[in-house]
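Continuing from yesterday's entry. The apo prediction looked reasonable, so today I'm repeating it with adenosine-5'-triphosphate included to see how the binding region is handled. Same sequence as before; SMILES copied from the compound registry.
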Amino acid sequence: MSGVMTGGVSRSAGRAGPALSVSDLRVSFGGNHVLTGVDLDVTHPFTGLIGPNGAGKTTLFNVVSGYVTASRGTVKLDGADITGAPQTLVGRSGVARTFQTPKLIGDLSVLENVLLGIDGRSSLLDQVRQAVSLRGRGQANIDRALSVIDTFSLADSANLDAGSLPLGSQKIVEVCRALVSEPSLLLLDEPAAGLGRDDVERLVEPLKRWAAGHGTTVIIIEHDLELVTDLCDDVAVLHLGHIIARGTPAHCMSDPQVVEAYVGISDRGGADGDKGGAIGKGAGGVNA
Ligand SMILES: Nc1ncnc2c1ncn2[C@@H]1O[C@H](COP(=O)(O)OP(=O)(O)OP(=O)(O)O)[C@@H](O)[C@H]1O
Ligand SMILES: [Mg+2]
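Holo prediction written out below.
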């Protein structure tokens, strides 16, 4: 690994090259070849990463954020090689993420959960071990966390236990926790899954404003293709571990390979059929 950024955050404004550049990334779990050579340069403020269930989308996020080590390939953040860097170092380099299933600490308050993201950089397990509380937290950090919470209209819930909130609010709290570190690159893994339309709106408009105001690059995995179309000028479609289409949402969703990928999945049905159906619903040009 060379040229790793060790502190501070970079901004998309004035950026010469891609915010994220992934090259020939390969990951296998035993005999399951999950990523089979992913090449992806991210240059737009919002890039959608879509693809059928099991395509390898979360695995790609896991590699970029340092949770999984690739057997081959490189990951560069603003040109700095972070291949194989552990999650704490990736976090310090300006990458924050959310998880497909929210990983909040249910009996800490919303504010305490968001404060955990300020360091953005210690593992969740470490954070639990530290038995974090508001005591010892600087007022400046608390103000910063409250400001993010307020941006997403959750100020009234700041002192409630995160676990007591409905799923939609919990997912938004996770986004707040990721944003509070003011990342240069934000990875959102299905932030709208399980959310009603009202929650999606509570998430999307503030997110757009935040990203524009902070120069944050956002990559969003999402099966809600209506949301992807709303947010993203740029979409990459992952299928069977590699990118099969790239371009505008309309371009990707009318690509015959993409249609085939979704139709094939839909024809096969499978245990996660509900989520597969959700892909087709908002698909626009995808007749799945
Ligand atoms: N840690 C792991 N160990 C073994 N297999 C894994 C691991 N993580 C992912 N996989 C497998 O890799 C494949 C891709 O999983 P991944 O979660 O990346 O897909 P995805 O595109 O995010 O799917 P979904 O849309 O359902 O979330 C699946 O077959 C999954 O079972
Ligand atoms: Mg996933």
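Comparison notes:
- Confidence is low (pLDDT under 50) at residues 1-10, 269-288.
- The first strand starts at residue 20 and ends at 29.
Will overlay with the apo model tomorrow.
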